[in-house]
Amino acid sequence: xxxxxxxxxxxxxxxxxxxxxxxxxxxxxxxxxxxxxxxxxxxxxxxxxxxxxxxxxxxxxxxxxxxxxxxxxxxxxxxxxxxxxxxxxxxxxxxxxxxxxxxxxxxxxxxxxxxxxxxxxxxxxxxxxxxxxxxxxxxxxxxxxxxxxxxxxxxxxxxxxxxxxxxxxxxxxxxxxxx
Length: 179
Description:
16 strands
């Protein structure tokens, strides 16, 4: 189970996509797709409220109709954008913004370690060979990725490496959080 926070509560990736309010009210189902979601990211708008939630789904043999795809769900729970990822094995997703406008939806391809960049309409922008497992964006600390050997801070405009921290031992990262 994965979660993200918004002003109205916590959004949970489970079947179905659910909002848990801050107040002790009943959870609200916001999207009832029958899928195997593996990650989500909140797309903020200029008022620091969420505009859409981007979810990555992986094909799963036990979930009929599941596919490798990226989709955006609006505040009413409607799927607004649906991107078939075909040969991309999605493992991690982040929405990266420069505080004036959202510029990228980033997905890590688990089979290649590439970082794939989409615009907010779900159109493929570019693909970067970085050998990473996770991507994360924080308003203060910016865009970070982590792989088996290091964590890197990336420039949002061109995804070049700004800083790198090398790990003492190689291991698959299981989580990444930044502020």
